[in-house]
Design a protein that fits this description.
Protein name: DUF5107 domain-containing protein
Shape: globular
Largest sheet: 9 strands, antiparallel
Organism: Candidatus Alectryocaccomicrobium excrementavium
Pfam family, one: DUF5107
Strand content: 25-35%
Helix content: 25-40%
Oligomer: single chain
Low-confidence stretches: none
CATH class of the largest domain: Mainly Beta
CATH topology of the largest domain: Beta-galactosidase, Chain A, domain 5
Length: about 600
């Protein structure tokens, strides 16, 4: 029987810091992945780029973390039975931090010894290790280091951990539910649109496992689509290509991603097994047909990226699972439709000589036979029905998240898909927008106070425009309208909105957004002028960094040095500020290139 307990997991942790209050107006400039037309068929690229969100707004950037680590107790939701112990962290996007095979005492995942964010996600901050579920946007969930709601559900056959959130950029509601049965961790992922509109589903699971010597990644495929560091997506034979065996990650020299071409009708699975033939295997219902591998490679770049978010001895890779063939794809989700699949994770022991041998087909047959002997497709379908029967169980909250979904419920027309989003979770940012909904006007804060939160949907934009038309066009209203227009790439209209905001009251926030528009228009000098003025209004770390970047980019090194010298000590000591100050002092020179800085993000 599966039990669920709540404990505290102490991990040496860097400080995440406060959210960056500056809206990311540059994110919409992301370029599509180039394709090799010689090896990529049209059907392979059909849904690449489909349903892409225009940047990360309404979310903010998380880039104010550091490198100094102190012990921190994280809330851990632990599922346990006689065979497995699974540790989830609802404060960190519901990440599966650890999966231990109790019969052998061995860890099946790469369990990160520390919490250290790095810049590898849409919102910047991301952490390595364990397994993460990314139902919505390409790459990593916006909740990579943010809370999910979590409930303990008492159901037939044992406890279920239910974790869920509302994804604001794509207006999707998703849940990740987990339980243990026998020697398997079962995970159900379900996604649906919160609004009466078409959507797109992403849905990749990224699973970090040991990437040391002797590990081999096995998957039922003879062909893969490879995306190398800085290269095009290309079709190649797998595992042998260019004289290397890519199923052995220690033979991959640089960061490389592989999306496997599993034949239609073949059972989907992927395994990472060590020298002794033991390791983790993942399988799923047919909806999750894609499998992938990401390896950092053995070069200096890859080693650095593995050590930076963990420790000096860390070596890991990711095996991945998704509903499409490749990660750049998003599948259409029609109005009223949903996406659902079941995964199973567990230990597998196979004949070491066979799985490590040179006969790829024999190695695959060996793993698949061992998998079939442990778990059948029918067992996955049976677990699907068990999860569905438990949907009506309300569950007891064991962790809470933000109040944005409840705000959308107040707006109306919101489908919560049976999930609860309590009113009590609304904070100061949500309450600002609730005021617009209930009183017809946004509050008007001090122009030097940091903006609290953003909205970009059409419904909220219409409410804000109506409010301004009714005489509530203060600086904060015009500022938020400018952000909404810039998000839509309506840059001239956005510029006029930010200028209208400045006419009402001078704020560093509107000046900074105008500077970004100047930068994107190719006017580095105007951008530097505005950022210098913004930084003079308020000594805030993100404003200061962007001002220094703008001044250095414009070649105004003396002004950059002067600004840096005037900053408060706490900001002046930031590694990124030190790096920019060195760039201003030494200018583009060999001396500047020799400076070494350990920058948090």
């Amino acid at each position: 029987m599966c039990t669920l307990s709540i404990e505290r997991l102490v991990i040496p942790s860097a400080s995440l810091g406060r959210e960056n209050p500056l809206p990311d107006l540059r994110a919409s400039q992301a370029a599509p992945i180039p394709l090799d037309a010689q090896t990529i068929a049209p059907e392979d690229a059909q849904y690449m780029g489909h349903g892409r969100a225009n940047g990360i707004l309404p979310y903010t950037i998380l880039d104010n973390y550091g490198r100094e680590k102190k012990p921190r107790a994280w809330k851990a939701a632990i599922l346990e039975n006689g065979a497995l112990r699974a540790t989830f962290l609802p404060e960190l996007g519901g990440r599966l931090w650890s999966l231990v095979d109790k019969k052998t005492g061995r860890e099946l995942l790469f369990r990160n010894p520390v919490f250290q964010p790095l810049n590898l996600a849409p919102r910047n901050a991301w952490i390595a290790g364990g397994a993460e579920w990314n139902p919505c946007g390409t790459g990593h969930t916006p909740f990579a280091v943010s809370p999910l709601y979590a409930q303990a559900v008492q159901a037939e056959g044992g406890a279920i951990l239910r974790m869920y959130q509302y994804e604001r950029a794509r207006q999707l509601v998703y849940r990740v539910e987990a339980t243990l049965s026998g020697g398997w961790l079962y995970v159900r992922v379900k996604t649906g649109s919160a609004r009466d509109r078409d959507a797109a589903v992403y849905g990749w699971s990224n699973i970090a496992v040991d990437g040391g010597e002797g590990v081999r990644v096995l998957v039922p495929a003879d062909r893969a689509l490879r995306h190398g560091h800085g290269g095009a997506l290309a079709g190649i034979p797998y595992p042998h290509s260019n004289g290397r065996d890519a199923s052995r990650p220690t033979q991959i020299p640089q960061p490389m991603a592989f999306s496997f071409d599993i034949p239609q009708g073949r059972r989907p699975w992927i395994a990472a097994l060590g020298k002794d033939g033991y390791g983790l295997v993942e399988t799923s219902t047919p909806e999750l047909m894609g499998r992938g591998l990401f390896a950092w490679g053995t070069g200096a770049l890859g080693r650095r990226w593995q050590e930076f978010p963990a420790d000096a001895d860390s070596a890991y890779l990711e095996i991945q699972c998704g509903p499409a063939r490749t990660q750049p794809e998003r599948l259409p989700l029609a109005v009223g439709a949903g996406a659902e699949w079941i995964e199973a994770y567990g230990p597998l022991q196979a004949d070491a000589a066979t799985v490590q041998g040179e006969d790829w087909a024999a190695a695959n047959r060996c793993v698949e036979a061992a998998l079939d002997a442990l778990i059948s497709p029918q067992m996955l379908e049976s677990m699907r029905e068990r999860f569905r029967r438990a949907e009506s169980e309300r569950g007891a909250f064991v962790h809470n998240a933000d109040g944005w979904a409840h705000l959308e419920q107040l707006l109306g027309g919101f489908d919560a898909h049976g999930l609860r989003f309590p009113a009590s979770r609304m904070g100061s940012a949500e309450r600002e927008w609730k005021a617009l909904l209930t009183t017809g006007a946004l509050p008007c804060p001090d122009p030097l106070a940091s903006p609290r939160g953003y909205q970009v949907s059409g419904a909220w934009m219409a409410l804000l425009q109506k409010s301004i038309g009714n005489g509530n066009g203060h600086w904060y209203a015009w500022y938020h309208l400018g952000v909404m227009l810039a998000y839509r790439n309506r840059r001239e209209e956005a510029r006029r909105a930010f200028e209208a905001s400045l006419q009402q009251a001078k704020s560093p926030w509107a000046l900074r957004c105008l500077a970004v528009l100047d930068e994107m228009a190719g006017d580095a000098q105007a951008a530097a002028d505005r950022m210098l003025e913004a930084a003079a209004l308020r000594a805030q770390r993100n404003l200061a960094i962007e001002a220094l970047e703008a001044l250095v980019a414009a070649g105004r090194y003396e002004q950059a040095e002067g600004l840096a010298a005037r900053l408060p000590t706490g900001i002046r000591r930031l590694p990124r500020v030190k790096a920019l100050r060195a760039a201003a002092r030494f200018r583009p020179s060999p001396a500047a290139k020799r400076q070494k800085f350990r920058i948090g993000d």
